[in-house]
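task queued by scheduler; priority normal; single chain, no ligands, no partner chains; default sampling; output format set to structure tokens
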Amino acid sequence: MHATASIYGFLAVGGMLAVTPGPNMVYVMSRSIAQGRRAGLISLAGVMLGYLFYMFGAAFGITALFLSVPFAGSLLGAGGAAYLFYLAWQAVKPGGRSPLEVRELPREQPRRLFAMGAATSLLNPKLAMIFLSLLPQFIDYQNGSVLRQSLVLGSSLIVAFASVNGFVAICSGGMATFLANRPGLLLAQRWTMGVVLFALGAHMSMDALRLAGIH
């Protein structure tokens, strides 16, 4: 795959996942709604540590080691699909709540907000799926340094994720206030998110089956 096409293709797929609510986005959003924009941005700074950890881990060989295990790619893909199905169910299940609903959270100091953001990011299976499984598929091993390509792709994705989550941190408080007395819109948001997550999970399941040689 041509290097430029690799970047565009990777960003297209990663961008779809970046705008899909996951643990990092929900954490940043909830802190911004409950404690203000500053708290949301501090939380995002902690989340960035997880991005950097997975990017450098993938770039320096964790990916090659992990994918050397038979069926590791298909197993990781199946795990990622199961996680997306779980998020879809959480979005549409009876009694479920939209991440944009205002809720009471204890106020935390900046240091703890940062630490909680880092922990949420490091334990996020969505990031592991992207950096340990998705990124290597867009590297052209015949086109120069694999390390350089990994860092370029990973850095581009980090910018996309940080931009989306930064927008969430700044704007989610206002959106939550707007939607507070509009339960119909909150329900529509939940179902839209659930359908998108389910579709992504189904697509990932098919990819995992193809990797395992099951047709």
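post-processing summary
- The chain is about 75% helix and 0% strand.
- The radius of gyration is 18 Å.
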